Amino acid sequence: MPNIIVHKNGQAHSGEVKENTNLVVRAGIKQFPYPNLSYRCGMGKCGKCTSRIIAGGEHLPEPNWKEKKLLGNRLDLGYRLICQLWINHDLELSQDDLVPAAAATTPDAPPCT
Ligand code: FES
Fold first, then answer.
1. Which of 14, 73, 74, 83 has CA atoms 20 to 30 A from the CA of 65?
2. Which among 70, 82, 78, 71 has a CA at the least distance from the CA of 28?
3. Ligand 1 centroid to 110 CA: how many Å?
4. Which domains does the chain have, with CATH numbers?
5. Is the pTM value of this prediction over 0.85?
6. What is the pLDDT of residues 24-73, one digit of tens each?
């Protein structure tokens, strides 16, 4: 069974899930990683479930069009929409210190003065 580690608010939360599990669906029925996973729509529209994959990303499928639309070049930083993923392998992710979309699209922008 996949072992999941979720970093949230400076803490690590871990648990095992069945194969082919969607973590947002689980959180919706108040199973791990509830209440330590941020999400809202569950449909790839709001971006609230955005997470940075720390380990295990090589086992995930290619980002779908919703992830590409919402995450843009943050995909290159290892960001994924957790609601769009069905997990079959160990995975470690973080919802701490995420780069906002605007910052990720202009990494070389000069600082505000
Ligand atoms: S929960 Fe809204 S995009 Fe994932």
1. 14
2. 82
3. 31
4. 3-96 (3.10.20.30)
5. yes
6. 999 999 999 999 999 999 999 999 999 999 999 999 999 999 999 999 99
